[in-house]
């Protein structure tokens, strides 16, 4: 799957994108967020307060129970502030 | 409906003219232009940098277009959103809606702006004399988009204007 990071999540993680295989046991957005927080200090910092983390699966806003699978484009970003 | 995401400035009059020329069914055109302000939370802003997620913007536009067309009869509409580094006073966003009568054009313009504020994947970073800071989302913007789901989607077609 392709992971994308935007705004301060990109800064905390330290990269804008990466390709990773679907982690073992991860089935949905909730599971993916838990796995992300365990990947290292930058990831842990980025995922510290999930109330300000939004996840888009294949370019659509997701719910924690939405499924994720290999090949998905998954983006992590703060609440949007455009307009 | 079209959306353009670009770094360069836009000309409101030229865009409006290009959008409505040749369609004499249009009786009302509403334009909204957002500008970069120089003050936020009591701090002076020297610049604002916008980051965005282009592919998601495109994907979401198809949905918002469907929603807008279910509610209003629009003959034409256009969104331009800039990204990159902007200075106070610069134009940042443009929404144009065109319809036979004014009510649909006014409402659709407001709806599209509320959508941009709460759903479109853009992020602002403000530069002040204390450094650069990502802007936090406003609860009032979430309230603004919410009202569109509370209203029944009665399509406005005949309100005279």
Which topology of chain B does CATH recognise?
Aldehyde Oxidoreductase, domain 3
Q: Total strand count of chain A, please?
A: 5
Question: What does the radius of gyration of chain B come to?
Answer: 17 Å
Residue share in helices of chain B? 25-40%
Number of helical segments with 4 or more residues of chain B: 4
How many domain modules of chain A?
Answer: 1
**Sheet of most strands of chain B:** 4 strands, mixed
What's the arrangement of secondary structure elements?
The complex is a heterodimer of chains A (83) and B (161).
Chain A: E1 2-5, H1 7-13, E2 17-19, H2 29-37, H3 41-46, E3 54-57, E4 60-61, E5 73-77
Parallel strand pairs in A: 1-5
Antiparallel strand pairs in A: 1-2, 3-4, 3-5
Chain B: E1 2-6, H1 12-20, E2 28-35, E3 39-40, E4 43-44, E5 47-52, H2 54-71, E6 76-82, E7 84-86, E8 91-99, H3 102-118, E9 122-128, E10 131-134, H4 139-150
Parallel strand pairs in B: 1-6
Antiparallel strand pairs in B: 2-8, 3-4, 5-7, 5-9, 6-8, 9-10
């Amino acid at each position: 799957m392709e992971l994308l990071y935007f705004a301060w999540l990109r800064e905390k993680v330290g990269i804008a994108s990466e390709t990773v295989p679907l982690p073992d046991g991860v089935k949905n957005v909730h599971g993916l967020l838990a796995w992300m927080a365990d990947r290292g200090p930058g990831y842990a910092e980025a995922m510290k307060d999930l109330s300000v983390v939004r996840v888009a699966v294949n370019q659509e806003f997701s719910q924690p129970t939405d499924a994720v699978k290999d090949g998905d484009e998954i983006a992590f970003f703060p609440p949007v502030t455009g307009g | 409906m079209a959306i353009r995401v670009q770094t360069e400035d836009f000309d409101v009059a030229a865009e409006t003219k290009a959008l409505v020329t040749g369609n004499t069914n249009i009786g009302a055109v509403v334009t909204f232009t957002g500008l970069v302000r120089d003050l936020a939370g009591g701090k002076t802003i020297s610049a604002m940098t916008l980051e965005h997620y282009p592919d998601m913007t495109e994907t979401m536009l198809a949905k918002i277009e469907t929603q807008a067309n279910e509610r209003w009869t629009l003959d034409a509409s256009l969104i331009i959103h800039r990204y990159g580094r902007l200075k106070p006073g610069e134009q940042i966003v443009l929404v144009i809606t065109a319809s036979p009568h004014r009510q649909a054009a006014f409402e659709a313009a407001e709806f599209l702006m509320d959508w941009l504020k709460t759903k479109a994947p853009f992020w602002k970073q403000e530069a002040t004399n204390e450094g650069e800071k990502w802007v936090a989302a406003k609860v009032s913007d979430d309230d603004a988009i919410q009202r569109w789901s509370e209203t029944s989607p009665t399509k406005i077609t005949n309100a005279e204007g």
